[in-house]
């Protein structure tokens, strides 16, 4: 059966397009399914429906989305983390029938969180009892915290049936958790050899048979259990289990980053496996590949395309414009003068011009430089009384950078009424007086406006980090800094200016000294600690690295250019190393005025 996914009304005349492309032996991209345009053996293309009088590039309908009665998706999630919300959104985009198991429960895992997962088998085994007699029902089980869908149910069902097996598991290059089992794996002529338990699909009665013998503890390994079933020749034959060797349905990123690229075609974005020339549907950022999944999630499913630009920038917004001043969020604003800074008088003028009621701001100033004492004193004398409170720490207090930032953040963390913490370094030039309110309205845990040095590629974010936690350039970094791609970007590192929700400081981050971690600088330590702690908590190795979000705050930034070629590849960042740039070179400037 088919249903309309979404329609924007009152836009005038409809225009219906179908992305006809030449028939090719390889797979072609499609972000949804459900139309009758069966171009080849692997992909069912959608119709694109637009209204001529609507804003340019606005996609009005994802095509005729199939509401499949023959495919059911199961996942286990004990908390609604940012990663889970991203997974659920991708399922909703393609109209999957999703069943979430275990929500609200405590996660029962060992201290070594890599060895866990029995709780997932227990939930699945219980849920399958209701479907044991439905021989035609196909059930897809997948992780959720580190998974996104890149296409819809019709493509999944088509590829599953082409496999001609009753149960299909994802495959991996790396064997886990017991390397001693390698010799027992069947030899394959092409593709990946080892089973991955993070995603599998099969007919309901056969999945019930798959988990029938499970009697283990919640803290035991689901990966090891499924591996032992697969390596038993009799069980493998009786259940008819195979692996998705060529990543046609499932793509595990661990050990496969060099194989994966983003493909932009006909207004859609897909992940292509370059090794096998396939377009996997379920993308799993297993193991240490969470940051790479975040990169892919900036584009998939249809989060950003060359034709539409950002499609998620207006999701989940908080409207503050209708609130009276007394109802606006109470905020701690931290100003940090950590080095000799030119034009500090101008910085304080811009601070005073921020369009936000001063009586809703607790202001903290840390000045590390004797040279700037007159400017700080002048600002305090003129404007200090306007703020709800004011605390100034000077060179005589002998506070190091990390200690000062920790002290300031604690002013918000320890105040239940504090809704936001806004950190601003003195070398940042914010020309948009509405910056603070714009960031609040985005309603993210951690968000930063995109600022950069005029005419240079230096900015306040990194698109990727190397294995040591230092700077690596992502493939899209240049385009984002130069405003050729404008959107909401999930990145591993921000600095210089950022906004943090007070609620997250008092929950997941409550027990941490956020500005210390090993030998990392204060800003790097902050981002590392947030990435490690915010998400699914301590439940597993599968949680989404939290959204350290970069957002352009000026509405007058030039629009995203149209790209004439219909085909474009972008590789997942694979760590090109560059030296860390010193923050002492020159002030950071916003690119444009409001």
UniProtKB/TrEMBL annotation:
Pfam annotation, one family: GT_PLOD
InterPro entries the UniProt entry points to: Collagen_mod_GT25 (IPR050757), GT_PLOD (IPR057589), Nucleotide-diphossugar_trans (IPR029044)
Residue ranges occupied by any PLOD1-3-like GT domain in the UniProt entry: 68-310
GO cellular component: endoplasmic reticulum
GO MF, one example: procollagen-lysine 5-dioxygenase activity
PANTHER family: PROCOLLAGEN-LYSINE,2-OXOGLUTARATE 5-DIOXYGENASE 1, PROCOLLAGEN-LYSINE,2-OXOGLUTARATE 5-DIOXYGENASE/GLYCOSYLTRANSFERASE 25 FAMILY MEMBER
Name of protein: Procollagen-lysine,2-oxoglutarate 5-dioxygenase 1
Record lineage: Eukaryota, Metazoa, Chordata, Craniata, Vertebrata
